[in-house]
Amino acid sequence: MSQVRAFLAIDLDDDLKPKINKIIKEFKKIDTRIKYVELANLHLTLKFFGDIDTNGLKLLEEKIANVVSEAEPFNIKIKSCGAFPNNNHIKVIWVGIEDDTILKDLHDKLDVEFNKLGFDLDKKFSTHLTIGRMKSAKNKSQVKSTIEEFEDVEIGEMKVDRISLKKSTLTPSGPIYDDIEVFEL
What we know:
Elements: E1 3-11, H1 17-28, E2 34-36, E3 43-53, H2 57-68, E4 74-86, E5 89-98, H3 101-116, E6 128-134, H4 140-149, E7 154-160, E8 162-169, E9 176-184
Helix pairs in contact: 2-3
């Protein structure tokens, strides 16, 4: 049996990447260890499936297609910068999504369908784009200050009119993401 590491995501519009890159460049000025997400890989994860049997992809695709068939395109506003679990204990640095009710509703409908296939329901779903993962506490106070500097940053709006089921191939130089299937809203 063949397996694939898969997740469901919304890709970030290319015209918003330069603004996020400016934020990343500010973090890169700090002498610390942060593993940054490649600009080409920036996405909003709707569901991480992990390693799944390729035979099960068809069932996933059917569930996604059913939910998406009832969804309309919508806009999201990308704004703010923060950290998980919080600014005092930084593991993940992110930019956020404002007014995400429609997005959360889409996630919840998909999550219920995935649960019918045996996937756990997401206990905590947070609408965000991961931009980096902190690998050490070195100069954490500077990282915290930079997060706070950008906590109200306005990056822009984008139209969500498709979601992508993606394959993630892990390599020593970072993950490579390929679309398995793209679903139009």
